[in-house]
Write a structure and sequence with these properties.
Layout: H1 2-8, E1 17-18, E2 21-22, E3 24-25, H2 36-48, H3 59-79, E4 87-90, H4 93-108, E5 114-118, H5 127-136, E6 139-143, H6 153-159, E7 164-170, H7 182-191, E8 195-199, H8 211-214, E9 218-222, E10 233-237, H9 239-244, E11 255-258, E12 263-265, H10 279-295, H11 297-316, E13 321-324, E14 336-341, H12 346-354, E15 358-359, E16 361-363, H13 368-373, E17 379-383, H14 390-406
Parallel strand pairs: 3-15, 5-6, 5-7, 7-8, 8-9
Antiparallel strand pairs: 1-2, 4-10, 9-10, 11-12, 13-14, 14-17, 16-17
The protein binds pyridoxal-5'-phosphate.
Length: about 400
């Protein structure tokens, strides 16, 4: 697609080689590559005004504070938060989800309460809730899947009950690549008085997200999956909920007054941002938001859809390929394709693809319960982004056709 070619020039890493071959980078679900604009913003911060934000009265520190707080404002506008104080910077989505689990979950849940999550969650939106359940005595319930990989409507209706105090759900499954109707799930959660935590790790870089429209109480994502550096993540929370929650980490910057035996805490958002923060990451995040908004999500979605529509019919023609979550009838398929090559371990598949310069992910993708539920040990995953081209898909499929031959199987 012409668009992808246009953006490709901005990504220096994609013009290097892997194993002596041009790179077909199809592991965007794990992390995305960074455009020149983001790299420049990070280098500009470290080369031009690196200083500890919020702490100094001198010009460099003031500038670092401005960069950091501007990132908060840009992030708030990007996802439709009502005020910048509703944006808490974390190191990644995992920390953001843990913040909610430790601070909201451990404080508000008790024996007799129920937490409802889906079987398609990444471990980052599953293990913290297990911990809350074990620590508080609350029960952990699961929404399971329809045969096509979508969440069971019946489970959404019957598992979320008057006992439910918290519902946590991913907006897009990182394995099946299917969009969930998180607006409907949030409405159901609210109808029984529960809060709804949405994991936006696989959505926010690929589609327009508006937390008001979803009516999510909490929304978490990682910068590195949306063109920004590693080490910066975001938790959005409704102001009143965040304001009522105790801090998650204690230390510098999150306090108002510290006495020998007592401390009063800072207002939002500082209450949840203990210690020196990732200002370089925030500078990169702002540049990434500028970059994404400059392109527009309609174009990004069109590129990914074109690649999926191009790849799936070809994959379906290959009798040795098994696909998961690839029924496109409901129109909620994103640019993530999970698959296996029959009789071949996913790690072997990924290694053979690697030798041709094609990067895909292999393993359980931090979703062991989902794989177990699907009756799989592991899978491979190709995941597209705005710089991928049909040529990348061609190279991936050409390499797949060789896999069984390399291992001495017939076609
Ligand atoms: C759906 C989902 N949630 C959470 C995460 C965790 O993200 P991070 O490792 O950046 O914290 C991932 C990462 O793959 C993910 O795909």
């Amino acid at each position: 697609m012409a668009d992808a070619q246009e953006f490709l020039k901005d990504f220096p890493l994609l013009h290097t080689e892997m194993n002596g071959r041009p790179i077909a980078y199809l592991d965007n679900g794990a992390t995305t590559q960074k455009p020149e604009q983001v790299i420049k913003a990070i280098c500009g911060y470290y080369g031009g005004c690196n200083a500890n934000p919020h702490r100094g009265a001198y010009a460099l520190s003031v500038e670092a504070t401005e960069i950091y707080e501007n990132a908060r404002k840009r992030t708030a506008a990007f996802i439709g938060a009502k005020r910048p104080e509703e944006i808490i910077f974390t190191k990644n989505a995992t920390e953001a989800l843990n913040l909610v689990a430790y601070s909201y979950g451990l404080t508000n849940l008790k024996q007799g309460d129920e937490i409802v999550i889906t079987i398609a969650e990444h471990h980052s939106n599953l293990v913290p809730w297990q911990h809350v359940a074990h620590a508080t005595g609350a029960a952990l319930k699961y929404i399971y899947l329809e045969p096509d990989g979508n969440l069971s409507d019946e489970d959404i209706e019957t598992k979320i009950t008057e006992r439910t105090k918290l519902v946590a759900c991913t907006q897009v499954s990182n394995v099946l690549g299917l969009k969930n109707d998180v607006k409907k799930i949030a409405a159901k959660a609210h109808s029984v008085g529960a809060v709804c935590v949405v994991d936006g790790s696989q959505s926010v870089a690929h589609q327009k997200v508006d937390v008001q429209e979803i009516d999510a109480d909490f929304f978490a994502f990682s910068g590195h999956k949306m063109l920004s550096p590693m080490g910066i993540g975001v938790l959005y929370g409704k102001y009143d909920l965040l304001d009522a929650m105790p801090p998650f980490l204690m230390g510098g910057d999150m306090i108002e007054y510290v006495e020998e035996q007592q401390t009063t805490y800072a207002e939002l958002p500082a209450k949840f941002e203990a210690g020196t923060q990732n200002v370089g990451g925030a500078a990169g995040l702002t540049a990434a938001i500028d970059y994404l908004e400059g392109i527009g999500f309609d174009r990004i979605e069109a590129i990914e859809k074109d690649l999926v529509d191009y790849a799936l019919p070809q994959l379906r023609e290959l009798p040795f390929i098994e696909l998961y979550g690839c029924d496109t009838k409901r129109g909620n398929k994103t640019g993530i394709i999970a698959f296996n090559v029959k009789d071949v371990h996913p790690h072997d598949v990924a290694t053979i693809l690697d030798s041709t310069g094609v990067a895909v992910r292999a393993g359980h993708h931090c979703a062991q319960p989902l794989h177990r539920y699907l009756g799989l040990n592991a899978s491979c995953r190709a995941s597209f982004y705005l710089y991928n081209t049909r040529e990348d898909v061609d190279r991936w499929i050409a390499a797949l056709k060789k896999v069984r031959g390399v291992l001495g199987y017939g076609a």
